[in-house]
Amino acid sequence: MIDPIFHLIEKESARQREGLQLIPSENFASKNVIRAVGSPLMNKYSEGYSGRRYYEGNDVIDEIEDIAVNRAKKLFGVPHVNVQPYSGSPANSAVQMAILRPGDTLLGMKLTSGGHLTHGHPGVTFGGVFFNTVQYGLTQDARINLDEIRRLAHEHKPKLMIIGTTAYPFILPFKEFYAIAEEVGAYVLADISHVAGLVVAEAHPNPVPFAHVVMTTTHKTLRGPRGAMIMVTEKGLLKDSELAEKIDKAVFPGLQGGPHDNVTAGIAVVLGEAATPEFREYGKRVVKNARALASALTAHGVKLVGGGTENHLMIMDFSEFGGGTQVAYAMACAGMYANKNTVPNEPNSPFYPSGVRLGTPAITTIGLQEKDMEKVADWIARVIGRVKTHKLPKEKTKRAEFIKNFKQQMRADELCLAVKKEVAEFLTNQH
Ligand code: DSN
User: Fold this and answer.
1) Which tens digits make up the pLDDT trace of 251-307?
2) SS3 category, 314
């Protein structure tokens, strides 16, 4: 009998093929990346680093990890890389563990402004529990607020400052941020998880000259397997000649056990792919498609946070009717997958936020072009029009029941089902 898991894998593959994958942190890895990740490398244990392992039988793994590290060094122009972090959150924690001691101060961006939980979100995260965290936000026009960062940096004297975002549609001001960190002697961690593929493609500025440490996940715009890399720059080694060693020790044995060697191989493969002219072209197209989608949505009267995008993502703002949850769910019923997201100065809770975040990395991978963005915007606008009258109740106690009923209606909604069919037909010709 076939294990039902394989039926479910096929069902999920069909959902990925037949719908528009608009979550900006998702992508389609190549067949070779999938082959590496699904290989017998997963059977091996290899605590330690190349040439310094705690288990025997790691000669091949050493070669694979060396290739991954050397490709990353070359691609990003950095002297030291650790490819072992399981993903972005442990990687950010490792950098904090390497640089900070309990009670030291960390300055990062607020979650509701587009920052990431692991940039020191108070109370519940590794950084927020063990360090004194201070958080910066946005200007009125939804840009990273450099004046506030300068004020907070001088007031709190952080030892580590983090620039990087998970829901921010504009260019990251690495140079200006680094200049502020220099004024107070702080380390800079640039978390480029979202834009790494764009950096490689020269469709976004490179943080390497303006950071001591650069961290990226490997599965977003970079299009690899679920993993992460921590890179120490020349500036990082000048600031602390032992920084690379401290980071390696924080990853293993500090926070992790054996690396996932199959993922390391997948990272090596994608770094090879990312070094090609085709990948550079891909990264540039992601940004062009995002711009085209943002203009087409705006033409349909959709309000976007900050008015548009300069990278791969945008956030639609439905604070007028508290509609992030409803629009994201109805879009999924219509075969278009995005995620509900807070907007700056979010009036509701993160569970019922007012925005929807969407982006173009995955749809660009399957070949969609600028000319297709009007079609995509038109489908989204039709769903928004259908949902607009479903206002989130002001009374918090009524929200769960309201959303439950709303979801039931949307699953059978004629307009959503019609759009889903159109999307699937359109995509049949793309794959
Ligand atoms: N979950 C990732 C994202 O969607 O951006 C960040 O961790």
Assistant:
1) 999 999 999 999 999 999 999 999 999 999 999 999 999 999 999 999 999 999 999
2) strand
CB 329 within 8 A of CB 398: no
* Gap between the Cα atoms of 244 and 50, Å rounded: 15
Cis amide prior to 253 (ω within 30 degrees): yes
CA of 24 to the centre of ligand 1 (A): 8
| 23 CA to centre of ligand 1 in angstroms | 9
Q: Specify whether the backbone of 357 is left (phi greater than 0), alpha (psi in -120 to 50) or beta.
A: beta
In sequence order, what DSSP letters do the residues of 288-308 get, joined into one string?
HHHHHHHHHHHHTT--BGGGS
Residue with tokens 């995005």: 338
Name the helix (H) or strand (E) containing 209: none
Cα separation, 3 vs 21, whole angstroms: 27
Q: How far is CA 227 from CA 67, 192, 263, in A?
A: 16, 13, 7
Tell whether ligand 1 has an atom less than 6 A from the beta carbon of residue 341: no
Residues 325, 354: Cα–Cα separation, whole Å: 7
CB neighbourhood size of 64 (10 A) = 23
Q: Give the tens place of pLDDT for each residue, 64-93.
A: 999 999 999 999 999 999 999 999 999 999
Its sign, for the CA torsion 238, 242, 247, 248, is positive
Contact 344, 142 (CB under 8 A): yes
Residue 311 CA to ligand 1 centre (angstroms): 16
Helix (H) or strand (E) holding 75: helix 59-76
pLDDT of the residue at 379: 98
Q: Is 166 in the pocket of ligand 1 (CB under 6 A)?
A: yes
Cβ of 165 less than 6 Å from ligand 1: no
Most informative mutation of 22, 25, 93 for ligand 1 (most atoms within 8 A of CB): 25
Which residues are tagged catalytic? 45, 47, 191, 217, 220, 226
207 lines ligand 1 (CB under 6 A): no
- In angstroms, the CA 64 to CA 46 distance is 12
Residue with tokens 């699937």: 424
Phi, psi (deg, nearest 5) at residue 255: -120, -20
Q: Is the pTM of this model over 0.90?
A: yes
